[in-house]
TrEMBL record:
GO terms (BP aspect): nucleoside phosphate metabolic process; ribose phosphate metabolic process
Pfam family of the protein (one): NUDIX
PROSITE patterns: NUDIX
Keyword Hydrolase: yes
Start and end residues of each Nudix hydrolase domain: 44-178
Domain of life the protein comes from: Bacteria
Residues spanning the membrane: none
Name of the featured protein: ADP-ribose pyrophosphatase
Length: 208
């Protein structure tokens, strides 16, 4: 048996959007179950995101610490952000986020992994990129505001991040998934075997 997720959509009898926010909304669907019953399913509708595991020549990952109000924590994370425009090329979005949050550019880009962050309650899909060949970006630094104005930036070794993840000290999902995927890729066929940066992404289709 091949272990692979497959797309499937059950019948929806009715749908409504009781809340619409600035970037996301909440939707309620009446979904037909396999036995014919109809149940309500509430979930957050999300435009999708990208994240960047930026790896330098000293085997350090570029991380930033940012306050996240819903969980009342300052979390160490990798650069990430929303797909601002429907159909936006995720590579371009990732390059923008790396520039805006870290003022860094990268020469080599690969797809590290694709994930649904919380599929039981949100349709958010995230593409996590591996970026190598890092250098300082040209031009002025992006002007930050709100939580980002308090952001800290650091470069931390892969080994130290793995230790922190397994010790329960690091919790951001993109950082956890990205770092452990990096280690798994190295132990497998190597980083150069990762998918190209413009690999198809059925969860958020785009024009290359």
């Amino acid at each position: 048996m091949t272990i692979k997720d497959i797309p499937e959509e059950w019948e929806i009898r009715a749908t409504e959007t009781p809340f619409t926010g600035n970037k996301t909304s909440v939707r309620t669907d009446d979904v037909v179950m396999p036995d014919g019953t109809v149940v309500h399913r509430d979930y957050q509708v999300h435009p999708g995101s990208v994240a960047v595991l930026a790896l330098d020549d000293a085997d350090r990952v570029l991380v930033l610490r940012q306050y996240r109000h819903p969980v009342r924590h300052k979390l160490w994370e990798i650069p990430a952000g929303l797909l601002d425009v429907p159909g936006e090329n995720p590579l371009h979005a990732a390059q923008r986020e790396l520039y805006e949050e870290a003022h860094v550019k990268a020469e080599d880009w690969r797809v590290l992994t694709d994930v649904y962050t919380t599929p039981g309650g949100c349709d958010e899909a995230v593409r996590i990129f591996l970026a190598r060949g890092l250098s300082e970006a040209e031009g002025e630094r992006f002007e930050v505001e709100d939580e980002e104005a308090d952001m800290e930036l650091a470069r931390v070794s892969v080994d130290e991040l793995v230790r922190g993840v397994l010790a329960g000290e690091l919790h951001n999902n993109c950082l956890v998934v990205g770092v452990l995927s990096l280690v798994a890729a190295r132990a497998g066929d190597g980083l150069d075997s990762l998918r190209p940066a413009q690999a198809p992404w059925p969860a958020r289709p785009f024009e290359a």
